[in-house]
Every structure is written in structure tokens, then in C-alpha cells.
Description:
Elements: E1 7-12, H1 15-27, E2 37-42, H2 49-60, E3 74-79, E4 82-88, H3 95-101, E5 111-116, E6 130-135, E7 173-179, H4 182-194, E8 199-200
Parallel strand pairs: 1-8, 2-5, 2-6, 4-5
Antiparallel strand pairs: 1-7, 3-4, 6-7
Helix pairs in contact: 1-2
Amino acid sequence: MSGAPLSAVWTLTDVHATRRLGASLGRHCPWSTSGARCLFLSGQLGAGKTTLAAALLAALGVSEAVRSPSYALIEIYGLGARLAVHVDLYRLHGVEELEQLGLRDYLQSDTLLLIEWPEHGAGALPNADLWLHLELPGARALPEAGERPDAGEWPGAGESPGEDGPAGGADGRLCRVQARSIAGEAWLGAVRGELPLSDID
Length: 201
């Protein structure tokens, strides 16, 4: 990549908008035969992370109910010859525990890593192709390109984990997206082509 990273901002008007964005991300996932794709998903509690992740995974073909794996930390979904690996690092107690999850085993072709709370794995995660930040009014914006996730400087870092709020993407919440790789630029470009950069309803 050269120059400023490709980015986008959508206003999510309701839970259906959150699901539409998640489904579009799933449909346009640029599967690779040379390595895994990686999507970071951050934002404070109740911002709609689980709602978006569930819609993305459903678009990939996951038929079972999707819940954020807050306690197990990792959930694996078989998609025929492909894999989707959903990771929630909120309860991570250190890099050593991250190693025990065995994420390295999934850095392989036709695999998608969907990582919630990536700031809790600072310095020990694969590079993201896309970084999505779901933002409530007044919350911290997405970090600059090249900035690593840093625990403690994101909204909600000291709160207890929980499910998304009733709306899972209530009126006026923002989703800021930044491409962090060439594949991420293609991915984001395809989603932007399907969903105009305005309110999603």
C-alpha cells in the first residue's frame, strides 16, 4: 500500500443497518489461497460488534446462532473447505494465553480471522486486512494507519463484557473502516460499491 489508506465511514441507523453492513463484508470477503484474511472489530460495549459479526458469518454460510465467544475466546466455523475463526480477546490475560489459543494454526489459506477487542492482543496478532471500529457519539476514532492496538486507550477497556444493546447498532452510531493491506483495499472497495457512503437503512 502507498499513500493514505482507503477508509470509509457509515452511519448505522438501526440494527438492520448493522446487519446489512456485516452481510456485505461477508459476501465480499477476498478469500486467499496463500494465507488467512484478518478483520479487526473494535468498539465499546453495546456498539453492535456481535450483531455485525453474526451477520458477516451468516453471509459466509454459518447457519447456527452466533454469540461472541467471551469465555471460550475462540469459536471455529467450518464452511466446506474454508474456515471462519471468531475470536474475542476481552478476557485475555496476557500474550501467553493468546499463544495457547493457537491462532498461528489458522494462518492458512481459505481462512478468515474475525477478531474482537484486538487492542487486548497488542503486538501479538497478525496484521489486519480491515479494521472496523463501531463508535458511539463521543468515542475515540479509529487509530492512524500503522498504529498498533493499545489496551487501555480504547472506550470500554475497563468494563465488563456483555451482549450488544437492544438495538445492536442504534440510531446514529458510526462504523469507521480502514483498509490495512492491498487485499483489504479490494475488500473495502467492493463493500463501498454495494453500500453508498451514507446512512444505511
